[in-house]
Specification:
Largest sheet: 8 strands, antiparallel
Helix content: 25-40%
Shape: globular
Number of domains: 3
Number of strands: 20
Distance between the termini: 43 Å
CATH superfamily of the largest domain: GHMP Kinase, N-terminal domain
Radius of gyration: 24 Å
CATH architecture of the largest domain: 2-Layer Sandwich
């Protein structure tokens, strides 16, 4: 964007494993990366925490409220923490079990340059310039479009005029994450915007590489958790046949029971009683199941619930099911079910948001709740977590472009999505349920919006693109790609890729298949 950009290291926060100050225009973000020396045994995920903090002094303000200091993270801070976390997570070595904490603190903010992008670039730089094993660097950028022209890192004013607002993150050769919204834009144009964003990351990645080689920092030796080969072979001999037998069970609950029985049988056969050994066996067991599922899908061109690759689960829609609410709808797709409820309010009910750019008011809110019973589990009820805030924000972005203008419809609208059953893609079911509940409430929306979650399996050069994925397919697949939109075009998109590098052709195939799926769902609605 023609504004000066710099990354500085070695001056502040020197006790962290890695720390950088990133500056773009007059926006400055300090990012630190620290890892603990102790391993957390038996984890099946990377123990990474990302905290993005916007200090009000960065914009020359004093916090509102009684206590006059920054409190719990705002939704914006939570969403940006998730943005930064998602492209970094696949780049740590498998089996790394030392806790990593990344803190991005906004120290100075002008009104033009978005600090969230600096947070992501800073996180990658801090990790690359530390002794933490990290297969980066990566970078992130925002893409807008005004009058058909793509713009990099648009200012707040430019975003008002833009029909695309995309956040793209990637490495030198691969796109890793995309998130954003659009005003009913065609798939082909969204793909162009993604590729345009990715192209622009190369100079920032090159800068990080140069800094790393000039400082000559070698990664520390860390012990990685891996199941021993002989254990893997033993588990495979006991469990393989029984695991393949679960592919004919279409019911999620029954399939889980069968898997649990097979796991317990494996524990007995191998005579493992203590917890660390059980965790090692479970790790090998899950890896074998993952490989078998992927092989089955690639070879048979069929899914574990019996569907073909592009088939969508049975859909049912009901509206007006709650007598005293302003609008309600029950949307069910396979074993995923959402109750969406609309409430109207006056301008006094608008949400007041304090941010670095000043006070703003929000007249449309979408809140997503994911209670434990929706997956048949027991867990304490807490305030909404990062995932719930993230899913709610994605569905909100998807619906916003079709809402009437304040002149046409001068009410505050709140939608609450209660996930009553979940087996994959509850955020996209939220989009469908929300559309139906708005129509039930009599809101003159421009067009109905539907959403679909796509998956991908890349194995030995073979590709399978899956429409309307299950929870297990999300877990074992290489991509989670959510697309929402109307019959005219895309209104929201979110993509996370677990494999290195996804060709333009595959992305086009996924977007085209998602479009077919979206049209099918819109017809059912």
């Amino acid at each position: 964007g023609g504004r000066p950009f710099s990354i500085e290291t070695g001056k502040v926060a020197k006790q962290a494993n890695g720390s950088v100050m990133v500056q773009y225009g007059e926006t400055v973000v300090l990012v630190t990366a620290v890892t603990s020396d102790k391993k957390r045994e038996g984890l099946d995920f990377i123990p990474l925490t990302v905290n993005y903090l916007e200090m009000t002094y960065a914009a020359g303000r004093i916090p509102g409220g009684f206590f006059k200091r920054e409190g719990r993270p705002s939704d914006r801070e939570t969403l940006i923490s998730r943005f930064i976390d998602r492209p970094l997570r696949p780049l740590f070595p498998k089996g790394f079990q030392n806790e990593i904490q990344i803190i991005a603190t906004v120290l100075s903010a002008d009104q033009d340059n978005d600090p969230s992008i600096l947070g992501m670039i800073g996180a990658s730089s801090a990790l690359s310039l530390s002794d933490i094993p990290f297969e980066g660097p990566i970078a992130g950028t925002k893409v807008g479009r005004i009058d058909g022209e793509f713009i990099l890192n648009p200012t707040h004013e430019e975003l008002e005029l833009s029909d695309i607002d995309l956040f793209v993150a990637g490495s030198e050769n691969a796109i890793i994450m995309v998130e954003g919204s659009a005003k009913e834009v065609k798939e082909e144009e969204i793909l162009e915007a993604i590729l345009f964003g990715h192209q622009s990351l190369k100079p920032v990645i090159e800068l990080q590489k140069q800094m790393k080689s000039s400082l000559g920092i070698a990664p520390k030796e860390f012990e990685l958790q891996k199941p021993e080969a002989f254990l893997y072979e033993k588990v495979n001999a006991i469990a393989q046949e029984k695991l393949q037998g679960t592919f004919h069970i279409t019911d999620k609950g029954k399939r889980r029971e069968q898997l649990e029985e097979t796991l317990q049988l494996t524990f007995q056969e191998l005579a493992v009683g203590d917890e660390p050994s059980q965790k090692m066996v479970k790790g090998a067991f899950e890896e074998i199941y993952r490989k078998l599922v992927r092989k089955f899908i690639i070879e048979k061109k069929k899914r574990i619930d019996g569907r073909s690759l592009s088939e969508i689960r049975p859909i049912s829609c009901e509206v007006g099911i709650l007598p005293r609410t302003h609008g309600s709808a029950l949307f069910t797709r396979g074993e995923t079910q959402v109750l969406a409820v609309v409430t109207f309010g006056t301008s006094e009910d608008e949400q007041k948001i304090h941010s670095l750019t000043g006070e703003t008011y929000k007249s449309f809110m979408l809140h997503y709740n994911f209670p434990p019973f929706c997956t048949g589990e027991v867990s304490p009820l807490r305030s909404p977590g990062r995932r719930e805030i993230g899913h709610g924000a994605l569905a909100e972005k998807a619906i916003l472009p079709v809402l009437p203008s304040p002149e046409q419809f001068p009410y505050t609208i709140r939608i609450v999505s209660e996930v009553l059953e979940s087996n994959g893609s509850s955020s996209m079911a939220t989009v469908c349920g929300s559309t139906l509940s708005l129509m039930d409430a009599g809101v003159p929306i421009k067009a109905p919006v539907a959403g679909i979650a796509m998956g991908l399996i890349l194995e030995d050069g073979e590709t399978a693109v899956l429409s309307d994925i299950l929870g297990d397919e999300d877990h074992f697949g290489d991509m989670d790609f959510k697309v929402a939109g109307t019959a005219e075009g895309v209104t929201a998109i979110q993509m996370d890729i677990k494999v290195r590098g996804l060709s333009k052709e595959i992305m086009r195939k996924v977007l085209d298949q998602a479009k077919e799926g979206r049209f099918h769902i819109l017809n059912r609605m």
